[in-house]
Amino acid sequence: MSPQWRLLRDGITDAHRHFAVEEAIVRRLDEVGRPNTLRIRQVEKAVFVGFFQDSDSEVNVPFCKERGIKIVRRMNPGGAVYHDLGSFCYSAFFLRDAFPQLEEELYRLFAQPIIRTCQDYGLEAHFKPANDVLVGERKIYGSAQVIWYRAFVQSGTFLVNIDFEVMDKALTPPPVKFADKKAKSVRERVTSLAREVGREIDTEEVIDRFLNHFSEMLGIKLREGGLSEEERRLAEELWESKYATEEWNFGPSRTYGITVAGKSKGGVVSISANLDSGFIKELKIKGDFLLSRQEAIRRLERLLVGHSPAEASSLVEEVDLPPDLSRTLARLLGELHE
Asked: d(Cα 203, Cα 83) in Å, to the nearest integer?
């Protein structure tokens, strides 16, 4: 018998409230163990900034404020993305033991309904590790993960119709992001279903096709439902105390004397630091790299303070991180100097 999940289409289009709902759902799932949920979401014009990113450097803030484009930090990692009502995202919330696959295998698994949906429109799409679906060499879908104790969230963004001119002006990724790619701008790097097909496409139609493929390919029965009273209450609290605040979306204003950056397999990594007599006084690790256990980076930042860059480089392996990310961080720490 196929497992049954709640299908949630709550119609919330405000970006800040949207992420408050996301966190409320995963918190309650961890606490009470149910229900596994597939949430379909669309938002008014907004930029979603990855958990580890610096909003001021990744986003054209003056342009966004002038155009009424909201800026909000996600609870999952990855790069900044522009959204409007022409595209959609999904979030799959489930207890981690619902799937036997490793985390990196879940990226591929959840990409399959996207690939099948592209095929419905005559497009040959393919999965590219770690977390993308491409049409040709352009990205049409990206995804990210969050582990919240025993709960897990797999999220994805499918570009259906998108205003590429606004996207290009709203996002300001660092040059290092394109260092290993033929594309040298966001507009060259990504595509949309409408661009590939050559006409505007009804987003609701695409969502319905995706839902059918999701249910069929993952063997899950979807039943529409709503947010519980507990989820609504918690979401309201999180919106007011966290996601609607400048502190969460932009972070504290700090000046660092040194910044070094590089690229790992999982994405761009940068380290900003202040040194005092050759020892790390303050340090912040930022970037669009993928890491489902965010607390590992915060633990590493605390561990490295008070050490010389050379000592810090050797301490990275004490925190459980993906090997390539560990090597990149160790190399960048070795490049810190006053």
From this structure: 13
Please name the fold of domain 258-334.
Answer: Enolase-like; domain 1 (3.30.390)
Q: Give the confidence band of 337 by pLDDT, cuts at 50, 70, 90.
A: confident
Query: pLDDT tier at 251 (50, 70, 90 boundaries)?
Result: confident
What's the average model confidence in pLDDT over 209-237? Answer: 98
Contact (Cβ atoms closer than 8 angstroms) between residue 40 and residue 9 = yes
- Cβ atoms of 141 and 162 within 8 Å: the answer is no
| Separation between Cα atoms, residue 321 and residue 208, nearest integer Å | 37
Q: Residue 186: which of 139, 228, 134 has the closest Cα?
A: 139
Going edge to edge, which strands form the sheet with 279-287?
Answer: 258-264, 267-276, 279-287
- DSSP conformational letter for 171: B
Whole-structure pTM over 0.70, yes or no? yes
Taking the C-alpha atoms of residue 105 and residue 32, their distance in angstroms, rounded to an integer, is 26
Q: Which two tokens stand for residue 168?
A: 């290009």
Q: Whole-number mean pLDDT of the chain?
A: 94
Q: Which residue has the tokens 């990594």?
A: 269
Q: Would you call 55 helix, strand, or coil by DSSP?
A: helix
CATH of 4-250, picked from 3.90.170.10, 3.40.228.10, 1.10.8.590, 3.30.930.10, is 3.30.930.10
Residues of the chain with CATH 3.30.930.10: 4-250
Judge if the upstream peptide bond of residue 129 is cis by omega within 30 degrees of 0: no
The pLDDT tens digits for 285-336 are 999 988 888 889 999 999 999 999 999 999 999 999 999 999 999 999 999 9
Q: Exposed (0-12), middle (13-18) or buried (19+): which is 309, by Cβ within 10 Å? A: buried
Place of tokens 């996601």: 243
Q: Give the pLDDT confidence of 68-87 residue by residue, as tens digits.
A: 999 999 999 999 999 999 99
Phi, psi of 180 (to 5 degrees): -110, 20
Half-sphere exposure of 307 (CA within 13 A, CB side): 17
